[in-house]
Amino acid sequence: MKFQTIEPSYTSKDGCRLVWQGVDEDDTDVVILNKKELENLVDIFAKNSTGDVELEDQSSIIRVNSDVTQFTLTNHRLLEAKTNDLQEKVLDFAKIPHEPQYVYVGTKEFYPSVWIRDDEKSLKDVPGKSPKVSLIQAILSSEPEKIRQDLSPTDLFRVFATRRSTRKFEKTKVEDWKVDKILSAADVAPTAGNFQGFQVFLIKNKDTKQALVEAANKQPYVNAPIVLVFCTDPSRVKLKFPPEILEKFSLQDATIAATFSLLAASGVGLSTIWIGMFDEEKVKTILGTDLKPSSILCIGYPDKKKPPKSRRKLKELIKVIE
């Protein structure tokens, strides 16, 4: 692992995220520092000194040496960074005033409550302002107003927040009841006219899995504990539309079903990788079907748990047409 960068914290304008990158693009590690921990680290670097920074759990330590800085973390592998490189990035980061995060998300839940605030004013002090502003309007507003919108906490949003693809699985067998839930999720996915224009192949045979590895551009993680191949089946869609429209419906059905299974897998503590690169004809031959494969979903226990990757800001993602 090589130390790569320092980023603002997701939940606080005062802390930071230290990011390491492995050889694999998906292999990353993150250490999150709160305001006090970051200040202590900055103080050591500003003095060109050495020393220790004790982290919040009181058992993890950042040890700054003259050549290498070591991160000895509880129940975690040792992380290291070249002190000169880390010092430069941390001090540069500390020079920049970070803007307040207008969208606040609870730290233990993804969506128990979301609110947008103006740190300089309280809404009750602003005449004529109403808290009944939609969440999306406030997020996309050029001058966000302080609002609060309570949303019911659900496991679903925690799954959204913590889901992470993995390319390295443990060999641990996945419990049958978890497989049942994953398949049931595909069964209840919304489909065109409720005709369920797709088919799911559950691959248990080792030789079949290895053949799929070859058909999927030799991606080794296709040989996962659980492998599902989602195929389109437009013949099931009994609607009076041209064949190309029925094929489109069927592809959408299969894609939504695979997404439901992916989220269900995350919800029961598993990890997944979605495979879209494969030779369709080879996969059809391997499965012994004429149905067109749309995706391969590989599922299992991750070799190690990873934090979610950063995403672009919601304001950049959403375009409102009024």
UniProtKB/TrEMBL annotation:
Superkingdom of origin: Archaea
GO molecular function: oxidoreductase activity
Flavoprotein in keyword set: yes
Domain Nitroreductase, chain residue ranges per copy: 161-219, 223-301
Pfam families: Nitroreductase (PF00881)
Cofactor(s) this protein cannot do without: FMN
Family annotation (SUPFAM superfamilies): FMN-dependent nitroreductase-like (SSF55469)
The keyword Ion transport belongs to this UniProt entry's keyword annotation: no
InterPro entries linked to this entry: Nitroreductase, Nitroreductase-like
Keywords (A to Z) from UniProt: Flavoprotein, FMN, Oxidoreductase
Family as reported in the entry's similarity comment: Belongs to the nitroreductase family.
PANTHER family hit by this protein: NAD(P)H NITROREDUCTASE YDGI-RELATED, NITROREDUCTASE
Protein name: Nitroreductase
Species of origin: Nitrosopumilus cobalaminigenes
